[in-house]
Amino acid sequence: MAQPTKTPTPAPAGRAAAKKELSEHFKQYKHVWVFIEQERGHVHPVSWELMGSGRKLADKLGVDLAAVLIGAPGEALNAAVAESFCYGADLAYVCADPVLQDYRNEPYSKALTDMVNTYKPEVLLLGASTLGRDLAGAVATTLLTGLTADCTELEVDTDGSLAATRPTFGGSLLCTIYTLNFRPQMATVRPRVMPMPDRVEKPIARVIEHKLGMVEADIVTKILAFVPDRDKATSNLAFADVVVSGGLGLGSLENFQLVKQLASVLGAEYGCSRPLVQKGWVAADRQIGQTGKTIRPKLYIAAGISGAIQHRVGVDGADLIVAINTDKNAPIFDFAHLAIVTDAIRLLPALTEAFRKRLSAHTRDRIAS
Amino acid sequence: MHIVVCIKQVPDSAQIRVHPVTNTIMRQGVPTIINPYDLFALEEAMRLRDKFGGEVTVLTMGPPSAEDSLRKALTFGADRAVLLTDRFFAGADTLATSYALAAAVRKIGSSIAPVDIVFTGKQTIDGDTAQVGPGVCKRLGFLQLTYVSKVVNLDLQGRSIEVERRSEGGVQVLRSTLPVLITMLEGTNEVRRGSMVNALSAARAEIVKWSAQDAGVEDIGKCGLRGSPTVVKRVFAPTPRAEKAALVDPAGRPPADALIEEIFKLRPKLEDDMFQLARGF
């Protein structure tokens, strides 16, 4: 076993580190950037959601909002660049090269790191997708700057710092994190957390092209194949208009079928809270919450879910949240719009039947009218 | 072949409670576990070892009590455990954590055996950032393979590795060159149970304990709170909505009917939308 180290105790860093003392070098860093994620010819919707957030930050700071695009030259990239302006970009930085056809960490992190070092943004936002997280972690480490993952709120503080809020401690509390003395201030945001901004038809404005400076021979990792997912249905949860979900209050895997039955009658998607995934009752891609999917449905019915923050941040964007729970002190009653204090196991079958009748009665009305 | 698996001891988040009055975390008595995602990394590492030969070293950074998680990993079948523990590491964010862990991996490489693969879980359940893996990787200058669902092929002679990697909308099959850092996706393998023999030897095994100095950390200023570019300014409980949920009072009606009435009263347009949806439009 090692001897205890003799190095003196460090000065309490909390205070010193919490003070803003931005170096002259970092004061040159200006403007807000959003990384526009494209995969296989499509822009990930999270990028447009981030453009909405980025626009607000840029306006508050009185700076430009730039879209950053990395990819192979061609129609898809051109279309994505054009689209960026319709979602609020003042300018676009584009790194186009054939080796950027599909995402790989090496060329993409080189491109983004070099662009940051050349054009010096103060804020850099990326989607917390598999691509975004792979890229953001690598780029932030190379730049030796702060990166706040999975933010649920982005604000500009009075001193112009980015205040990034995210759930912490397994989702029971929120914390606001600053990168005071390093630039850029990086943050990732999960899909569907921020609302989709309106698209406004606009012409392409300023586009700045950046050379990659890397050839295929420089890149070690090779893509041998891409196998698209066969089951597209599961990925619909995030975009569903109606979602029914269940939690531990259902008591058993058997009772979870009641959630599925209601969802089926409604043509809705079904989901669950984290404990049900941990118990192995429901597949991980059905989990709703901080570590699962974020949803923004018109109607969200939560049966037997107590409503920890971890779950709440995943459903806060729902237009109408309906809670079914036996415990009227459950946290979900603090953020649901409508609630009924009753046992979900008893109510769900009745609700399924009542909805079936109601929606077929609706059919009769329509045919009659 | 030498594989290092980075694990983290985390509070069992399912059992964390917030004090109802002070809104502070009640950590007392919350049991700690190995971050569940890390178990898939550990299992995959041990499978490769069992197939190709070599050793698996588990590494964690944490308080002295993190030794429990390392012993658990030895019970599962890891060959060696290193605990990186020092007060200088306290309060580290992801950048400072990756600095310390990378230093320890280098030290493991130079003092035990060169490292071919570093495994981590895809993220932790307490921090949820998924950033430390890529951070360690960049600092080591290894090739980065995140969200790996399967190691398809490993050619130690040719120093090449093929993996399946989860990406948006599908799976990438990638070939890269050792050394690599792999973050392992959950549910990708069946984590083995610890054997009785391993449990007995794990209880007696010596855990290698390194301070920052022992691990060859060059700059203490890059560790812990001091080395962290991010600053947590505020921790707070979420504000409840101005109004609590409106409670549905069945008032003699069947509760299900009452609930549906109230839903459509609050959102009249929803009925038409749901009609379309139920009919499969």
Write a brief structural summary.
The complex is a heterodimer of chains A (369) and B (281). With 369 residues, chain A is an alpha/beta fold.
Number of DSSP strands of chain B?
15
User: Which two chains touch over the largest interface?
Assistant: A-B, 114 and 104 residues
Helix content of chain B: 25-40%
Low-confidence stretches of chain A: 1-17
- From the spread of the alpha carbons, the general shape of chain B counts as globular
**How many domains, in number, for the residues of chain A?**
2
CATH-defined fold name of the largest domain in chain B: Rossmann fold
What would CATH call the homologous superfamily of the largest domain in chain A?
A: HUPs
Content of β-strand of chain A = 15-25%
* CATH architecture group name of the largest domain in chain B: 3-Layer(aba) Sandwich
Low-confidence stretches of chain B: none
Share of β-strand residues of chain B: 25-35%
Largest sheet of chain B: 9 strands, mixed
Helix content of chain A: 25-40%
Q: What is the CATH class name of the largest domain in chain A?
A: Alpha Beta
- Tell the overall outline of chain A: globular
What is the rounded Rg of chain B? Answer: 24 Å
Please give the number of β-strands of chain A. Answer: 18
Q: Would you list the SSEs of chain B in sequence order as H and E?
A: EEEEEHEHEHEHEEEEHEEEHH
N-to-C SSE string of chain A, H for helix and E for strand = HHEEEHEHEHEHEEEEEEEEHEHEHEHEH
Classification by helices and strands of chain B = alpha/beta
Function (chain B): May play a role in a redox process involved in nitrogen fixation.
Organism (chain B): Rhodopseudomonas rhenobacensis
Family (chain B): Belongs to the ETF beta-subunit/FixA family.
GO molecular function (chain B): electron transfer activity
